[in-house]
């Protein structure tokens, strides 16, 4: 890399800081950008420059948006009575890409992780509780009937789900007893071989078995 001009070297070094990008990949991407038409490169640079200033958090669900409320929350055809609680916007995108869910979301922007000094107050948990107590998301104000806890099935994700569940149970004691609290089912993926499944996966598969 020492033989590269500074203009290329600086771009390559920056790209190396991106997740999953090594030195060789960074160099290839740098030369790809260099060979782009001038107009495309300016458009790309403009989009990167505007990334921070134009990207906001949705006031309802804390998804990323360029407006006050994201497109999902504004969509009147979605079921606003069902809220799926996810850790990150990337998790939200996974649901949206598969088109397997028609409710709305609440993004926590993390999970409870004491080792990294992330506690409940660092997440958007209080905002979720306020949404429920306030009878639903704007602009439709639909009464919430179900909360799906879709945090990841690791230790921190489970701890976060349990914490939120306990908070929701406190609300139910105050009178909102119709709210259903559910958790994503875990078990064997399609095409899996039982021989290679770990203990916890089989345990969850047994516990979450359905009528056939």
Topology overview:
Layout: H1 6-16, H2 23-34, H3 38-54, E1 56-57, E2 64-65, H4 71-74, E3 79-86, H5 89-98, E4 103-107, H6 125-133, E5 146-149, H7 155-173, E6 180-183, H8 199-207
Parallel strand pairs: 3-4, 3-5, 5-6
Antiparallel strand pairs: 1-2
Explain the overall architecture.
By secondary structure, the protein is α/β, with parallel strands linked by helices. It contains eight helices and six strands. It has helices at 6-16, 23-34, 38-54, 71-74, 89-98, 125-133, 155-173, 199-207, and strands spanning 56-57, 64-65, 79-86, 103-107, 146-149, 180-183. The model has no long low-confidence stretch (mean pLDDT 88).
Key terms for this structure?
2 domains; alpha/beta; Helicase, Ruva Protein, domain 3; two-stranded antiparallel ribbon; 12% strand; four-stranded parallel β-sheet; 212 residues; Dna Topoisomerase Vi A Subunit, Chain: A, domain 2
């Amino acid at each position: 890399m020492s033989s590269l001009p500074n203009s290329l070297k600086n771009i390559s070094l920056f790209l190396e800081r991106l997740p999953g990008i090594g030195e060789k990949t960074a160099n290839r991407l740098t030369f790809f950008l260099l060979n782009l038409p001038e107009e495309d490169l300016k458009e790309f640079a403009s989009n990167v420059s505007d990334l921070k200033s134009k990207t906001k958090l949705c006031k309802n669900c804390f998804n990323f948006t360029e407006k006050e409320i994201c497109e999902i929350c504004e969509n009147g055809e979605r079921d606003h009575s069902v809220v799926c609680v996810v850790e990150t916007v990337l998790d939200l995108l996974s649901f949206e890409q598969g088109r397997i869910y028609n409710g709305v979301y609440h993004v926590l922007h993390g999970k409870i992780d004491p080792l990294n000094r992330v506690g409940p107050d660092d997440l958007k948990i209080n905002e979720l509780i306020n949404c429920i107590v306030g009878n639903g998301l704007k602009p439709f104000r639909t009464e919430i009937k179900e909360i799906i806890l879709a945090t990841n099935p690791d230790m921190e994700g489970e701890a976060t789900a349990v914490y939120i569940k306990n908070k929701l149970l406190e609300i139910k004691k105050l009178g909102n007893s119709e709210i259903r609290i559910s958790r994503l089912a875990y078990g064997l993926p399609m095409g899996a071989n039982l021989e290679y499944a770990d203990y916890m996966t089989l345990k969850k598969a047994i516990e979450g078995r359905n009528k056939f």
